[in-house]
Amino acid sequence: MIFNRRDLNFALVKWGSGLRCQIGSGSVNVSTVNFQPQQGVWYHFACVHDPVAQTLSLYVDGSVHSSVSATGFTQFQNGDVREFYIGASLGSGSPAGHLNGDLDDFRIYNRAITPGEISQIMGESGGGGGPTQTCGNNVIEGTETCDGTQLNGQSCTTQGFDGGTLS
Q1: What pLDDT is stored for residue 82 in this prediction?
Q2: Domain ranges of the chain
């Protein structure tokens, strides 16, 4: 489970050999076929419910994978307070189906975002390329070969900035 809202069941889940974006109790869904994520590879997914166009669309790595008709579902209202889970679903009263992976740059919008906005997000730092690399945070990220809190004299190799010295 990547995300889930309890009463409306707006969810993006690993489903069989694919990935599924669904609303309702799974009555409206869009699925990928044979999606097997590779360890160490970052992917970008977007699940968009457009109540005006009455569609539910699933985007994979910035491109629309598929879209289906989604009628009869209401929009969230200002002031609504609902349970929402990221990285799990609400099983029998407690979180279950935990995600075995990492999430980076998770976003929720109060409107249906456009295909152009999805492409733009994909191109942003951290939007599909994995977490943003930060030198000096004492964490080896992405293509870094070293990193530390003691910056003077540390040499790091980072994506696009190879061979530099931190100071």
Answers
A1: 61
A2: 3-123, 133-167
